[in-house]
Design a protein that fits this description.
Elements: E1 3-5, H1 8-13, E2 18-21, E3 25-26, H2 29-39, H3 44-47, H4 49-52, H5 64-78, E4 79-81, E5 86-96, E6 106-119, E7 123-134, E8 142-151
Parallel strand pairs: 1-4
Antiparallel strand pairs: 2-6, 3-6, 5-8, 6-7, 7-8
Length: about 150
């Protein structure tokens, strides 16, 4: 269940708060292929299961940017901002891909509020670190500091 915040002060007070984890999501070849079509990145390690069997990972792997894009899917499952006039994606910092995400893997998002600073107009700029955890792996597939500007 998403952590709910209803004003800028509550968001600022949440710095250091663990937002928990989302449900698991299985990474399918169909999702990888759809992402490849959307981005034009058809490298064989992503889209050719037969060739990938003999590759460095033994099977196809998700694109790093596909794994990163899951932060957008996971964020609303981790945090909910109630009573917003407007919220915008302001960008990302410190994007890393510590481990490959193989086809068939189950992943989930983990959230941590790492910073929150006031912005003009009863707003707050919040940084939530999203780690895309891979079931059975010590390393995440992606770690990204997402930045949002929220106006209540």
């Amino acid at each position: 269940m998403a952590q709910a915040f209803n004003n800028a002060a509550a968001v600022q007070a949440a710095v250091g708060q663990d937002l928990g984890t989302t449900d698991w999501l299985t990474i399918t070849q169909e999702r990888i292929d759809t992402f490849a079509d959307a981005t034009g990145d058809h490298q064989w390690i992503h889209v050719d299961p037969e060739r990938a069997k003999d590759g460095p990972f033994g099977k196809t792997i998700a694109h790093g940017f596909l794994t990163l894009s899951l932060a957008n899917l996971f964020l609303p499952q981790l945090v909910e901002y109630q009573g917003l006039k407007m919220g915008v994606n302001y960008g990302c910092d410190k994007v890393r891909f510590p481990a490959p995400v193989p086809v068939g893997a189950r992943v989930r998002g983990h959230g941590l509020v790492v910073a929150a600073e006031p912005v003009k107009g009863d707003g707050v700029q919040v940084t939530v670190r999203v780690s895309v955890q891979i079931e059975g792996s010590d390393k995440p597939g992606c770690v990204v500091d997402t930045i949002s500007r929220l106006f209540f």
